[in-house]
Amino acid sequence: MGRRSEDTKALILAAARERFAADGYDRATIRAIAADAGIDPSMVMRYFGNKERLFAAAAEFDLELPDLMSAPPEDAGAMLVGHFLDRWERDEALLILLRTAVTNDAVAERMRSIFSGQLVPVAAKAGDPATAPARAALAASQILGMALCRYVLALPPLVAMTRQELIEWLGPVIQRYVAPTP
Fold first, then answer.
1. Residue whose C-alpha is closest to residue 36's, from 7, 8, 11
2. Contact yes or no for 125/68 (Cβ under 8 A)
3. 16 near 54, Cβ under 8 Å?
4. How far is residue 37's CA from residue 44's CA, in Å, rounded to a whole number?
5. What angle do CA 94, 150, 112 make, to 5 degrees?
6. Are 102 and 149 spatial neighbours (Cβ–Cβ below 8 Å)?
7. Residue-wise pLDDT tens digits, 71-99
8. How far, in whole angstroms, is CA 155 from its chain's centroid?
9. HEC readout, the chain
10. Is 116 within 8 Å of 136 (Cβ atoms)?
11. How many Å apart are CA 84 and CA 54, to the nearest integer?
12. How far lies 160's CA from each of 45, 98, 108, 154, 166, in Å?
């Protein structure tokens, strides 16, 4: 693809991110995204094929997980909880995925792919590689549950907690899953 194609693709992705954030997956349409980007809907289809592929591309991101080996092993849980709190609060794409994954199978698969593809290797480095998938899934259940309750459902006790309080409560749980002591 030439420079012009890459610019068009970037324009579509930017419009898609904003539209998915504003309307959610189900209500966002290819026509609306194309209108936001100032292009013909056929161009969106040309580059992405369908709405699911466009969403997958728009929601592509790196969890930017920290290197747990660079910190004391006993700090791994707290480090991950703090990291995820930062990610949820600065990246709308992750929140869009969470909201949409509960009602859309394709989006749920995207979320599974992101978390397993990026969290399992971290767990494998920090503990027994044979149990890493299970430990990563348990850690993800806690992180995703906290995010759902704090950022989507807005449960008052979780919303009222400070970042440090959340780290103090969840850190030991995540520690147990990600970097268990022998």
1. 11
2. yes
3. yes
4. 9
5. 35
6. no
7. 788 888 999 999 999 988 887 777 777 88
8. 20
9. CCHHHHHHHHHHHHHHHHHHHHHHHHHCCHHHHHHHHCCCHHHHHHHHCCHHHHHHHHCCCCCCCCCHHHCCHHHHHHHHHHHHHHHHHHCHHHHHHHHHHCCCHHHHHHHHHHHHHHHHHHHHHHCCHHHHHHHHHHHHHHHHHHHHHHHHCCCHHHHHCCHHHHHHHHHHHHHHHHCCCC
10. yes
11. 25
12. 43, 21, 28, 9, 10
Name residues whose C-beta falls within 8 Å of residue 167's C-beta, 6 or more positions apart in sequence. 78, 81, 82, 85
- In sequence order, the 6+-apart residues with CB closer than 8 A to the CB of 156 are none
Q: Which of 165, 145, 163, 170 is nearest to 155 (CA)?
A: 145
Provide the residue ranges of all domains of the chain, joining segments of one domain with +.
Answer: 3-58, 68-178
Report pLDDT digits (tens) over 24-70: 788 899 999 999 999 999 999 999 999 988 988 887 777 888 887 77
Encoded amino acid at 178, one letter: V
CATH architecture of 3-58: Orthogonal Bundle (1.10)
What is d(CA 110, CA 57) in angstroms, rounded to the nearest whole number? Answer: 10
Q: Check residue 49 and give left, alpha or beta (phi > 0: left; psi -120 to 50: alpha).
A: left
